[in-house]
Amino acid sequence: NRLPALLKAMPKAELHIHIEGSLEPELIFALAQRNGVQLPYADVAALRRAYAFTNLQSFLDLYYAGASVLLHEQDFYDMAWAYFEKAAADHVVRAELFFDPQTHTARGVAMGAVIEGLHRACRDAQAKWGISADLILCFLRHLSEDDALATLEEAMPWRDQFIGVGLDSSEVGHPPEKFARVFARARELGLHVVAHAGEEGPPAYIWSALDILQVQRIDHGVQAIHDAALMKRLADSRMPLTVCPLSNLKLCVFKTLADHNLGQMLDAGLCVTLNSDDPAYFGGYLNDNYLQTFAALHLNAQQAYKLAANSIEASFATESDKHHWM
Ligand code: ES4
Ligand code: ZN
Q: Which positions in this protein are listed as binding substrate (predicted)?
């Protein structure tokens, strides 16, 4: 059976990775020491033991605590560089990295330190491994739209160092329409627009991400399965869904990987892609997501090619790069 070798070697794009979610416990402790930040965990093993999540919020609490060790431009660089080393090993040719500036600026970290550190790592990854990489600035949906608008304005001096905006954090109770104005502004600025929708939230949140935010991709979107008209809309428009199976498993969206609806979404003709979300917290990078999901759902080589091709198609790379990778 040569499927695992194919899954590993295929050139693929990763379109749903929160770079703060790639921060491994070892790097969290190294940065805490370097920056003199106190952590409420004795050591790496104690932190790792705390990674037992019951839902999205139980994860987010630890994810924001972990990010508190990031203070300086070099910290952001080192975090992204560690991710690119994994991505290169997984044959990722294109990566679109989410980052959460509000998590950092709220602690007094300069916007420039965040964006410049991450952007420098993107450039160096291109030079060292030929990975095409860009940044997507995400708004925290548990905060206000005014806070998001101020964050977008604050990032404008670095407009050429990110390609789009996204929407993440606690979904239920914070529907996409809460961010209608800031997404309209982002679109006016020529930024790409994506949003998390239908991870834990209802199909209605996917409809409003499409119709009100006018997103170009839906992040997660797995709850679409409960709405036949929405499934038809997504299929007919070839709207990409950035699905993250190991994330869904760890956050108890599905009871087991065998229960995941990826196979049904592929069968329904959706433009599904596979991604790692927060690999340091969810137990695997991109190839782990491919390997474990294919094993659990008994997917085949044709579906492997389909998912990899979808990831390239759904990316915001140039048409010439896409052509080169297909
Ligand atoms: C996230 Cl899994 C997930 N969902 C929503 N927001 C997030 N931020 C980081 N990981
Ligand atoms: Zn996510």
A: 278
